[in-house]
Amino acid sequence: MSISLKFPDGAERSYEDGVTPLAVAEGISKSLAKKVVAAKIDGGWWDLNRPIEQGGKFELVTRDSADGLEVLRHDAAHVLAQAVQELFPGTQVTIGPTVEDGFYYDFARDEPFSTDDFEKIEKRMKEIVDADLPIQREVWNREEAIAHFNSIGETFKAQIIDDIIPPGEPITVYRQGKDWKDLCRGPHLPSTGRLGKAFKLMKLAGAYWRGDAKNQQLQRIYGTAWSDEKQLEAYLHRLEEAEKRDHRKLGRQLELFHFQEEGRGMVFWHPKGWRLWQVLENYLRRRLDAAGYQEVKAPQILDRALWEKSGHWQKFHANMFTCETVEGEVLAVKPMNCPGHVQIFNQGQKSYRDLPLRLSEFGSCHRYEPSGALQGLMRVRAFVQDDAHIFCTEEQLVPETIAFCKLLRSIYEDVGVELHAVKLALRPEVRFGSDEIWDKAERILQDAAEAAGETLELLPNEGAFYGPKLEFHLRDAIGRTWQCGTHQLDFVLPERLEAEYVGEDGQKHRPVMFHRAIFGSFERFLGILIEHYAGAFPLWMAPVQVVVATITAEADAYAREAAGALREAGLRVELDLRNEKVGYKVREHSLAKVPVIAVVGKKEAEGRSVALRRLGSDAQSVVPLDAAASQLATEATPPDLR
RNA sequence: GCCGCGGUAGCUCAGUGGUAGAGCGCACCCUUGGUAAGGGUGAGGUCGAGAGUUCAAUCCUCUCCCGUGGCACCA
After folding, report:
1. Over chain A (642 residues), what is each successive 10-residue block's mean pLDDT?
2. Three-state secondary-structure class, residue A193
3. Among A202, A197, A203, A192, CA closest to A230
4. Is the peptide bond before A538 cis (omega within 30 degrees of 0)?
5. Which of A247, A283, A255 is nearest to A271 (CA)?
6. What is the per-residue pLDDT for A519?
7. A593 closest-nt by C1' vs CA
8. In this predicted structure, what is the pLDDT of residue A1?
């Protein structure tokens, strides 16, 4: 019997039955055999040393490919687990998957690990690689496997077979060396030596078994692994560079904001940071005005009764800031703006002619976030949402969603950020509204977003209690993703808060409501922007756009005049008349990421010009003052006004 | 909230069982210098808070607070 393998280049070759992918690779070239880590047959993984059972589309996966890295990282996780179990007897293994740029393994052990243990563990891992232990795939009987893992005290593994692997699916166990075994779907390398040593343990964290805080907390060790040392070095270097753009660091360096103990999770915005905020708020306000929104302002504190009616009290009151008055009223600082906007909608009578009605608010919200959740500007307790609620008819749901997606994309393009992913969060376990309503809401939102051209990633169980939501995710400097924009469809709150309009038929109808935000929160969005630009904002956003710096005191009077002319042209200008050398001033303002330095000395004063120097370039261009003012003002025009 | 790691001058960080240092910044003086750091002098610290061990604690132990990396949570 022979089998026929179809290669990616279209070639088809036949092999003897039982040939291994490794043998196939060796038949092609020595160097390929060295680089290969696994194979794929008809898209399914196949171990290198596993005899091929049937022909099909065949692909050899090399260690430097994306798929190959997955295999290496998965093997690194196994080698980590073996090392840990050898060094710390009694430790139970649980799961060890790959993640972006690396892998982790969750261990159950009474004693805590410390990052001081990493050196020892890495050393043992390298010994396991040097030993080049053979890795063998074995298929086990389900009941025997459960009994085996229970008998050796690996109760988590037994539980995985029992609860997670669907009946009928083969139970595969990989034997690494003589005695060490792990339940695993594979694929794995033929031996540990092929892994190489381009890995490093990175961090230690607690993690709950099966992601549930009610379960036992395990100890998770994260690592990174690459195909060679050079890639590992490059990755570590990238991380270091990314840390330099941490918005918390830049916030201090650029004097944008600060935090202090007395206001955990609350931002003190400094003049430059607040200027940046204002620039973006003004920009966004113009865009919303143009898109048919009407801005409102609702009270900051409202009676508990309203939050009970909306349903927020039941679900979130532990996370709300509340107070009781001397007269015994219980009030809550608003954690979100929707009930307020519905009250505005409910005033007077609304007609179908008023719909869609888009009420927007730069709404200041407060939420008591768990202490461990706080993260610089990204997760705070006091924040401002660029919130809006769109009240509309069912027929308007699709066009409003399309309009929103377009508006969001246009705004993200203007401010220069790149969407990382668009996700659709579906019904959570605890929710209001019938299943029929949820079926309808999810279907409409998905269809509408797809009609808007969005490609969606589905997130089961992650919707709001009142409806499904589209989430627009951005990435920070070190690659973490954050939900910024959101577009949520809600059939529930209009009902609970009794919103109504009079239809064409003269009868009262219930509007449907969208909750939507483009930045999400100003705090988080500014955090993302700071990291995205590493503090070097485009001219229209920069808190200080131009610094006029003198060379000698002789030029002071002219420098004042020049700064005045630039301000007159609408630019944000600072004047630096200090008794310092021009090189010192250039260095300082460059580090402060000021986009334009206008140097003036005796020559410029006489010629009524300025010597412009752009951030990131050491070239200078001497331009007449009035030309510089009009040219820079044009350049500094926000994108929507150009 | 949970697990790991950390907290020394405004910032970045070094250091020690005998109560502390650097660079930058800041203040003052000299210097007016043409595009990424001119020179000098000086001020500035209950070494996160509290308790314990010790003749003696910034250093060792415990508790708490805060930060940080994850997990859980996120209307």
Report:
1. 90 92 96 96 95 94 96 98 96 96 96 92 97 96 94 95 90 94 94 97 96 96 97 94 95 96 94 98 98 98 97 95 95 97 97 98 98 96 98 97 98 97 96 96 97 96 97 95 98 97 97 98 98 97 98 96 98 96 96 97 97 96 98 98 96
2. helix
3. A197
4. no
5. A255
6. 98
7. B36
8. 72
Compute the distance between CA of residue A473 and CA of residue A424 in angstroms, rounded to an integer.
Answer: 11
CB A89 within 8 A of CB A180: no
DSSP per-residue codes, A542-606: -SS-EEEEESSGGGHHHHHHHHHHHHHTT--EEEE--SS-HHHHHHHHHHTT-SEEEEE-HHHHH
Single-letter code of the amino acid located at A225 = A
Phi, psi of A167 (to 5 degrees): -55, 145
User: Which residues of A does the annotation mark as catalytic?
Assistant: 338, 367, 385, 387, 389, 469, 515
Residue A375 has what DSSP assignment? Answer: B
In the structure, how far is the CA atom of residue A119 from the C1' atom of nucleotide B61, in angstroms?
26
Report the distance separating Cα A3 and Cα A15, nearest Å.
Answer: 5
How long, in residues, is chain A?
A: 642
Nucleotide nearest A205, CA–C1', reads B70
Q: State the Cα–Cα distance between residues A334 and A356, nearest whole angstrom.
A: 25
Nucleotides of B under 7 A from a protein CB: 1-5, 11-12, 30-38, 65-75
Determine the distance between A462 (CA) and B63 (C1') in angstroms.
Answer: 39
The three-class DSSP label of residue A300 is coil
Could you give the ipTM of this predicted complex? 0.95
What span, in angstroms and rounded, lies between the C-alpha atoms of A537 and A273? 12
Cα(A490)–Cα(A26) distance, integer angstroms? 60
Q: How far is the CA of A467 from the C1' of B69 (A)?
A: 33
As a whole number of angstroms, the distance between CA A95 and CA A112 comes to 18
Residue that the structure tokens 């627009």 belong to: A472
Q: Count other Cβ atoms within 10 Å, centred on residue A407.
A: 19
Q: How far is the CA of A641 from the C1' of B39 (A)?
A: 50
Give me the CA A273–C1' B45 separation in Å, rounded.
30
Q: Which residue has the tokens 């929707």?
A: A338
- What pLDDT is attached to residue A2? 87
The encoded tokens of residue A546 equal: 């131009």
- Measured CA to C1', what is the nucleotide nearest A262? B66
Question: Any bridge partners for residue A425, and if so which?
Answer: A459, A469
Cα A585 to the center of its chain, rounded Å: 37
**Which nucleotide minimizes the distance between its C1' and the CA of A605?**
B34
String of DSSP letters for A128-143: HHHHT-BEEEEEE-HH
Distance CA A599, CA A324 (A): 59
What pTM does this model have?
Answer: 0.95
* Both structure tokens of A282: 């003004």
Written as one letter, the residue type at A526 is L
Q: Measured between alpha carbons, how far is A497 from A499 in angstroms, rounded to an integer?
A: 6
Give ∠ CA A181-A182-A183 in degrees, rounded to 5.
Answer: 135
